[in-house]
Amino acid sequence: MNLEEKIIKREPKYHGSIIDVEKQIVKLPNGQESSRDIVYHAKAVAALVITGDNKMLMETQWRAPVQEVTLEIPAGKVDSRDTGSSKDAMVRELNEEVRYRAKTLKHLTGFYTSVGFSDEYMDLYLATDLEPVSDELPRDKGEYLGIKAYSLSEAKHLLDSGKIKDAKTAMAILYWELLSK
């Protein structure tokens, strides 16, 4: 069965610093028409950061879309400060957010963050063999973070209890559990 939709019309709705939004009119496989709201987002990166004492670094920060403080792994978008490489962006984000450089930075997986309406694709890395950075990069304007280390059992408890609601962080914890076996 052919499930592909054909775009008939594109109507730009918003152009911002982080996202672009467009409305699409599409022809469905059965010949009928429908509309789609699409959010375009830059490629993104995130890291499961494991310290020398086998703890995971997570950060707390205010997230305006959900109007609450969230507990997450370090992450950010690939942008003009990078050479276009997600690995370069991850090196920069680790410096900006947790103030470490990882001697070992291994790509674990990549995934779409919310495939129902956005094209955002995120690469997930494992960052180990950490050393403090000697030259701290400035954090993004308006970015205020709290950094704390958690054991695997603590991280799993935070996930089980609903204190972690962020999908990339949940995936990182599950990857850590798999890697620990």
Automatic annotation (TrEMBL):
Keywords: Hydrolase. InterPro entries: NUDIX_hydrolase-like_dom_sf (IPR015797), NUDIX_hydrolase_dom (IPR000086). GO terms for molecular function: hydrolase activity. GO terms for biological process: nucleoside phosphate metabolic process; ribose phosphate metabolic process. GO terms for cellular component: cytosol. It comes from the Bacteria. The keyword Methyltransferase does not apply. Signal peptide: none annotated. The keyword Hydrolase applies. Its cofactor is Mg(2+). Pfam families: NUDIX. Residues 39-172 form the Nudix hydrolase domain. This is NUDIX hydrolase. It comes from Nicoliella spurrieriana.
